[in-house]
Amino acid sequence: MSQKDVGRRLSRRRLIQGSAAMGLLAGFDSMMPAFARGRLDNSNVYHTVRDGADIYDMTIARTPLTIGSRVSSQPITINGTLPAPLVRLKQGREAIMRVTNRMDEPTSIHWHGVLLPFQMDGVPGVSFPGIKPGETFEYRFPVKQHGTYWYHSHSGFQEQLGHYGPIIIDPAEPEPVAYEREYVVVLSDWTFDAPGDVFRNLKVAEGYYNYNQRTVGDFFKDVENMGWGAAWSKADMWGKMRMSPRDILDVTGSEYTYLMNGSPSATNWTGLFRPGEKIRLRFINASAMTFFDVRIPGLPMTVISADGQPVRPVETDEFRIGVAETYDVIVEPTDIAHTVFAQSQDRSGFVRGTLASRQGLEAPVPPMYPRTERGMAAMGMGAMDMKGSMKMGSDMDMKGGMKMAGDMDTAHGPMKMNGNGEKMTKMDAPSDTVSLSAVPTAGRPISHGPDNHGPGAAMVASKPQSRLDDPGVGFETVNHRILTYSQLQSIDGWPDKRPAEREVELHLTGNMERYMWSFDGKKFSEVDGPVKFYNGERLRLILVNDSMMDHPIHLHGMWMELETGAGEYRPRKHTISLKPGERVSALITVDAPGDWAFHCHLLYHMEAGMFRVVSVV
Amino acid sequence: MMIRIKQVTGISLLMLAAGTSAAAGTGVQAEPDWALPVHDDKVFGQILVDRLEYQRDGNDEIALWDAQAWLGKDRKRLWIETEGKTDLSTESGEIENFDVQYSYRLDAFWDIQTGLGAQSTFGADPNRERYSAIIGLQGLAPYWFEVDTNLRVTDDGDVSYDLEAEYDWLLTQRLILQGRGETLVAFSDVEEWGVGTGINNIGLGLRLRYQFSREFAPYIGVSYTRYLGNTKDLRERGGEGVDASSFVAGVRWWF
């Protein structure tokens, strides 16, 4: 039975005790999935084991739920809960998922980050026709990997309405990670409006949800801080481009209720622990549109895996988690209660939960960081062009300016000083760090094609930079450690040691005026064929962000080994978040024949056209 | 007039439909009867009543409308604009324009628009109407100016050019001061319509609106119009005023 198969020897008893302690909670909120009540074992009634295969029966339906204090008839649940139940699999076994659609619209499940035959990938129109109302589709695939992943609908806007859940795959061999307890922490954004209406608002009225736009007062604040000349030239630069430095998230806290394991802040999702325990928290950002900044005030977190893949342990105080990314961290509570705090990237809202030594305890909830603006780096005008912004910093000297060419650290210097750039936070290097070498694509000239991507792109990054050691916008006032991609290093490297034989470059493009999002200025409906990968090749994928937004870019079916400068210890990811004006590259072992989706994981960007099919032929 | 507008509508819809084909980006394994993975080519539409307002200049009371509607996809749209006013005491007025245009996104920030427009008067005096072919640009200029500009040729061959620009100052996230300027330049005298060669007029306005929601924002403001050159002479001869400053109150509303 499943009990026998639970891989880790971690105290089953404690898990059971934990669930008993949370029985009370279960009483008044039976719509909460078992994992949110701390039950991460496979005692799930929908799960059976036969002939070495984990079999799940999952029923997708609309279920009216109370979220916060409001009832909604919108939620899409799986087996009655939001988020959907935990799927716990085991590396080396087979997974059989029987998914029944009890809605009156087609649906699908995509197993995010799980390597499988393309027909099982669950993207309607790419890997299969979708699951029609009343139909049952059986997914069947061998489980090759382990780690924290998730699953969600790939049909329309269903993912916005609760159609997402966590996956834990236990390793065949025990991991060298010690902990006594674990929790899944699923972060998401909920709207009481129809997602189609949200999309329409974005389409017809730019900035519809942004209540943090620059005002006349902000201009005079700039004048106060940097003088008339600098304030004018800043306004001039943004005005010329018709871009807003305050355009950080498209859908904000003015619309969303942020959820942690399905609970808003008021309901306070609580994970219980016993003093002295080490806890593994498996964070999953299942949002439609929200980047979260996550911290547990007063408690350092040791990141042990990213996107399900183990990384060298790195201690940090905060991390930004892009949509669809996952991070596993180990924490060791020092107090009787700790707040788990996740604020949206634009500081328009947050959700908190609590790690507590008994039910009902709370810790102080910190204020959100101040709202912020994007700096000039977001325009993707690195190096020499940055000099233009030098005029802004009243306290800059020319020496600093000279250094700026090709040196992003210094280039960010003035931004930091005038207090409204995207700050470069210097981190203590991990003790056993591999010396970072240059990213292979750094300094290369860039081409945007003859028409700069056409009307689909409102701007292009003339000199995009890798900003992998930049935590991004919004941490200007923060003095603690913030995780960056440059700190992620794989444990032993990956099996394929070949250099890239071929390069594919794609640009992330958008035009907010019409809410058009695309690759290379062309929406999915405008391209003339799939992106071709050749089976067996070693490929370098180069991504250039020609827009003012952060984009989490997800490749189905194959890993992307992110070239961070860590040489062979580059981390491998299913979703790479690119900051505005950024260029990154990743090595891919093309070994998965078939068609795969490749897209921005911001739900409304994807539906607006930022989607391609990759055909491995 | 309606017949002509219908024709334009028909032509525009045809042009909207042209170039629409099934997405070609699907993979090599996809079956033809599968639904598309994303639907990025949908038709949207919006009706925006930019100004629906009451104007008062001394004892003159005027109701004014300025509205637009569009229907279509990201790059090709059917675009309808109308503007006009009526004197509340005489109940006569003018539909200054009713334009039905095909609008094409030719640049990240600009649409080129072309179509037909109608202009007519109503009320006590004998009603007049005329039609024109239009070509224009509409979009967002650097520094966030909303610009709409057209070149018109009437059925009598008279040519004119008009320009409108709006700029929003955000005082707070919901309290917005809008500056507005407009002008019209004619290349021939058309006395019947009170149009003289040269710059006809300059209109300036300031409107302070409060956005209760993105869709609904009542406002108050001031508006000033001054007639110039030959147009001014024409109006003086006809006993009409050559400038007007008004207090305005109205609502901006879209859905």
TrEMBL record, chain A:
Task: Report domain Plastocyanin-like positions.
Answer: 63-172, 250-335, 498-616
Q: What InterPro entries does UniProt report for this protein, alphabetically?
A: Cu-oxidase-like_N, Cu-oxidase_2nd, Cu-oxidase_C, Cu-oxidase_fam, Cu-R_CopA, Cu_oxidase_Cu_BS, Cupredoxin, CuRO_1_CopA
- What keywords does the record list, in alphabetical order? Copper, Metal-binding, Oxidoreductase
Q: Transferase among the record's keywords?
A: no
Q: Which organism is it from?
A: marine sediment metagenome
Q: Does the keyword Oxidoreductase apply?
A: yes
Q: Which GO terms describe its molecular function?
A: copper ion binding; oxidoreductase activity
User: Got a GO cellular component term for this one?
Assistant: periplasmic space
Q: What name has this protein been given in UniProt?
A: Copper resistance protein A
Automatic annotation (TrEMBL), chain B:
Entries under InterPro entries matching the protein: Cu-R_B_prcur
| Example of a GO biological process term | intracellular copper ion homeostasis
Q: Which Pfam families is this protein grouped with?
A: CopB
- Gene Ontology molecular function: copper ion binding
GO CC, one annotated term? cell outer membrane
Q: What is this protein called?
A: Copper resistance protein B
